[in-house]
Structures are given as C-alpha cells and as structure tokens.
Design brief:
The longest helix has 12 residues, at 101-112. The two termini are 30 Å apart. A 6-stranded mixed beta sheet has the order 2-1-3-5-6-4, sandwiched between helices. The protein contains 12 helices and 13 strands. The chain is globular. 45% of the residues are buried. Helix content is 38%, strand content 22%. It has 273 residues and is an alpha/beta fold. It has helices spanning 16-26, 43-51, 65-71, 77-82, 101-112, 130-141, 154-164, 176-179, 224-231, 240-246, 248-255, 263-270, and strands at residues 2-8, 31-37, 57-60, 74-75, 87-91, 94-98, 122-126, 146-151, 168-172, 185-188, 192-195, 212-215, 235-237. The structure holds 2'-monophosphoadenosine-5'-diphosphate.
Length: 273
C-alpha cells in the first residue's frame, strides 16, 4: 500500500489528512495519508526513512519547510525561487522537493474568480514572510505589471523585493492609502487576521470598485479584511481554496490520479474550521 504523510510541529490541527483521505476514498485508491509530528532537528532522521522506501512522499508544513528544502536531493525551480518546499516525492532513494503553494494560490483564484488576472496592471501584497514569496512568484508568472509589497517591517519587504527581482516595489503598511487607488488586487500573505487580529488603519474604501481582495488566512474563513471588503461590495476570495489546491500536485504524484477540488471537499474541510 502506498503511504503518504504530512510532517510538521505541531501537526494535530493539519487539515491535510482530511483532504487526502477524502480523495483516497473518493477515487477508491488503496493508500494512506498520516500526520506525523517531526521537528526540524529530527528531519534528517526522517529523511532516512524516506530513502528506505517507507513512503511515496508527503507534505511538509511549519516549521519544517526550509530544513526539508536543504535535505532534498532535487528541487523544482519554483521551490528554488521560494527557498522552501511543502511537498516531497520519493523515487527510489531520491527525494524531490516541490513548492505547490504557488499553484495553490493560483488554482484558488482561477476557480473562485475566473479571469482575475486579465489585464491586471497593479497589485498590493501585504506581508513579506515565506507565504509572500510564493504569492509574488505566482503574480510575476501571471505577468502582473506592478506589485507593491507592503510590510510592517519595511526593510524585510525591501530584501524580498531585491531577492525576487521583477516589478516589485517595497514599502510599509502605512503606504497602503497612497497606492491603492489603482490596485486591481489586494492579497494578504501575513498572519494578520488569525485569532482575532486585524490590520489597523488600512482603508479599503479607496480601492477601485472592481478590485479583488483575497486572504491566505483561512481561520477564520472570513477575516476582518475580507469582511470589510465585502461590506464595501468588493469581490473577495477566501484562503481555504489555496489549502485545497496546493494539495492537488502531491496527490497526483504519489497516487497517480489528479484529484478535483469539489464543493463537497470544501464543505468537509469548512466544517472543521
Ligand atoms: P510565513 O512564512 O507563514 O509567511 P512569517 O515569515 O512569520 O510567516 O511572516 C509573517 C508575516 O506577517 C510577516 O510579514 C510579518 O510582518 P513583520 O515582517 O513585520 O514581522 C507579518 N505580521 C505578523 N504579525 C503582524 C501584525 N500584527 N501586523 C502586521 N504584520 C504582521
């Protein structure tokens, strides 16, 4: 039986077993997907198990993504530009690392807001951590002409903009008002919105009426940012779809079937939030 996993620490709250378990049942595939608590300092030992063929692969979550990146034998170019992996595929004694957060972000917007990238001139990205990297690479790939990367700590946004190159200009969150007049897309990649936190002083009211606002935070599903955007009549896409879509390439690589992100799957995961 093919076995896959998600590793991270802590791992009990991961929704990945629910997602992959649903697909295994739906497609009648004999396989398993289990959550395993692995801290970064024991990841090298875990990789030995991989090389012995115990698993076909799995997902990697916080705080293991960067250490796993370093341990992989091969990495896809996207993972290299992001500097972190969230998916491992084992072939023989070789471990290949992928980063599918980028595809998850795009898959979610493509499904929930078709044509969102048509003629998209200008976007604002909030936050400059690991998740911002995947989103910036995705927006660059879709040819967005101008990206404002705004972060609480502006120097981190500057470092990231230089590192990734492209049409990315860095600034502080306080600059939101002066740049939002022509922004067609606003993406929150920061952890703001989790556990009742919210941005102070961001005025979405100045965005164009056609702007799309999306958040990668999905606990809660409707973050204060999305609630404000909806109240203003702006289009919104929540972050749950990114979690579902980032799981697709891994499942396909391990079990040989490209799975679908269906409303039923979404409802199943939503019920646990
Ligand atoms: P990840 O890798 O998941 O993106 P991270 O690297 O810890 O996580 O990044 C978290 C992001 O959320 C950062 O951009 C952080 O801003 P700083 O660089 O200034 O730390 C942002 N963030 C976290 N809490 C915040 C808050 N209360 N207000 C504004 N930004 C916040």
């Amino acid at each position: 039986m093919k076995r896959a996993f998600v590793i991270g620490h802590p791992i009990t709250h991961s929704r990945s077993p629910l997602i992959h378990g649903y697909w295994l049942r739906t497609y009648g595939i004999e396989g398993s997907y289990e959550a395993i608590d692995v801290e970064p300092h024991v990841l090298a030992k875990f990789f030995e198990r991989l090389k012995r063929g115990e698993f076909v692969g799995g997902n990697v979550t916080i705080p293991d993504k960067e250490v796993a990146y370093a341990l992989c034998d091969e990495r896809d170019p996207l993972a290299e530009s992001i500097g972190a992996v969230n998916t491992l595929v084992v072939t023989g004694d070789q471990v290949r690392g992928l980063n599918t957060d980028y595809l998850g972000f795009l898959g979610n917007l493509d499904q929930q807001a078709p044509n969102w990238d048509h003629d998209l001139q200008s976007a604002i990205v909030l936050g400059a951590g690991g998740a911002a990297r995947a989103v910036l690479v995705a927006l660059k790939a879709r040819g967005v002409k101008s990206i404002r990367l705004l972060n609480r700590t502006a120097s981190k946004a500057e470092e990231l903009a230089i590192d990734l190159e492209g049409p990315i200009r860095a600034g502080s969150l306080g600059e939101f008002d002066s740049h939002c007049g022509d922004a067609g897309l606003v993406v929150n990649t920061s952890s703001v919105g989790m556990n009742g936190t919210k941005f102070e002083g961001l005025d979405l009211g100045r965005l164009p009426r056609t702007a799309l606002v999306t958040d990668i935070v999905y606990t809660p599903l409707v973050t204060p940012l999305l609630a404000e955007a909806r109240a203003l009549g702006l289009r919104t896409v929540d972050g749950l779809g990114m979690l579902l879509h980032q799981a697709v390439p891994g499942f396909e690589a391990w079990f040989g079937k490209r799975p679908e992100v269906t409303p039923q799957l979404r409802a199943l995961v939503e019920a646990t939030l």
